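Closing statement on the adenosine-5'-diphosphate sub-project.
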Amino acid sequence: MDLALASQWERVCARLRAEFGDAAFNSWLRPLEFEGIKDERALLSAPTRFMRDWVISHYGERVRAVWQTENSVVTDIRIHVRPRQAATRAAEAGEADSGEAEGNDAPLTPATPPTLVTDMGSSLDSRFRFDSFVVGKSNELAYAAAHRVADSPTVTFNPLFLYGGVGLGKTHLIHAIAWHIHERDPNRKVIYLSAEKFMYQFIRALRDRDAMSFKQAFRSVDVLLIDDVQFFSRKDSTQEEFFHTFNALVDQNKQIVISADRSPSDLEDIEERIRSRLGWGLVADIHQTDFELRLGILEQKLKTASIEGFPQNVLEFLAHRITSNVRELEGALNRLIAYSNLVGRPITLELTQDVLQDLLRANDRRVTIEEIQKKVAQHFNIRLADMHSARRARNVARPRQVAMYLSKQLTTRSLPEIGRKFGGRDHTTVMHAVRRIEELRQTDANLTEDIDLLRRMLEA
Ligand code: ADP
Ligand code: MG
């Protein structure tokens, strides 16, 4: 190849590496091979279809943009899958469905471009559909409610409020609702955006003295989906505007769907009357995943990426050990596959433990409320049952408060979730316990010592 072109690619790589860091660069971009420039397109190849898709969806736009600054002739990139070595190809002979050369070529723009629903909203991820959402015990209520809202021609619950921890599928479900409604009836006006974006748009409208068109745009929608409302900031005019929009839409019988990382009553930064209004419809929470669901999700991801022959023991190992959230689970699978491709080693348990060391360790360190209760009960020499009991004697009440305090500190559980695990107590009881222990820590050196010891044991 032309030397000038080759050094162009090197410069592009250097910039991408600086931008994304060594780890991402080595996993995803280094395996690409540059093949030349044709018809204003830079042609690249990737070792597998999976990697090609990943690079396109995560880095494609940046690769294109960086390239264009190096060489203004290039307007697009194209990545195809390198023909595989004879051995692997024979092993996957059953997979001869797509024409190798042409069929594997993927333009940067996907076949069904994510539709920008309206100019006020954000675009939808074309992967987030109902049929790619794996249903299990922890998310069945949220899934059913989301599906009902998307299916129903009339307003069912208003609002539908979905909440759950990070990476458990809230955004996925909200996008799925939007896609579904949009596909059934393209005339229905759907807006999807995050609370942050809503605030930003509103502030910009105020600055441009154009609040009127902002109001009109939002109040003329049929379906409004707002993601991550915990990001509404403390009691200001954007919250107020959101509340007016919300009420106006409810009055006109328009569907609203909201997501947050906590329940309406736990949204401390949101004004009380708005909070309570948010809980009027159906509130559905997504719980932590269980093993079956995690396994199901991994299997589905492999299927979507057309990867066959992935060792079952490794899959189960991942489902057992990466328990924090689905995003990490997907990330782990991707990293493993990329690594194995890159170094040309088969995926085994050993390789998995090696490659995912950091992630596995981080997941190990996650403490459960049950462990906290057990350790605290042992330490203070009370019965485990007293963590749940109604007894108020100081010698059991104080350790219980310590356990609640540690649950708040060491887990990502919300106050109501913690309350539930302590014999169905109210979240205000938990809040009180946390404050009380914080106060006591200022004055009571023994208690502080106990807590530090417990924390170290739990985190070890
Ligand atoms: P959240 O918005 O709750 O933080 P996301 O909806 O962004 O989480 O989900 C994180 C990732 O996990 C996404 O790639 C999503 O597709 C995937 N995911 C989460 N739950 C599921 C599920 N039940 N089935 C399939 N994929 C899921
Ligand atoms: Mg989200």
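Residues 85-117 have pLDDT under 50 and may be disordered. With this model delivered, the sub-project is considered complete and its resources will be redirected to Aim 3.
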